[in-house]
Automatic annotation (TrEMBL):
Alphabetized GO MF terms: DNA binding; transposase activity
NCBIfam families: transpos_IS200
Pfam families: Y1_Tnp (PF01797)
GO biological process, one term: DNA transposition
Highest taxon, organism lineage: Bacteria
InterPro entries recorded: Transposase_17 (IPR002686), Transposase_17_sf (IPR036515)
Protein name: Transposase IS200 like protein
Amino acid sequence: MDLDTNNHSVFKLNYHLIMVIKYRRKVIDDAISNRLQEIFESIAPNYHISVKEWNHDIDHVHVLFTAKPNTELSKFINAYKSASSRRIKTEYSSIRKKLWKEHFWSQSYCLLTVGGAPLEVLKRYIENQGEK
């Protein structure tokens, strides 16, 4: 496994982010998804985030990304949602008719950590520390 480093630590932080359109409006097609990904990737370096995978359905997006320990994930997600909402509504003005009161993203999101080893394996590893 390749690990990331900075001055004082070694880490591997992978996240799975799911963001949903307000009231699950069905507005995401391939062109909009590609533009949303471009916006994500343009903001991500400012927060030390790197996109590993992106995909979408008609009412939500999935993003697999890596981050650093000092990344403020909630600030990044809010900055992204704000910027992408504004840009998408400007660039795809017809989308406004499909939205509810101009809201693009739902206020909530799902953010999951993802890793290589299952939780049970890690629990056993920690439980067995100090035993010979």
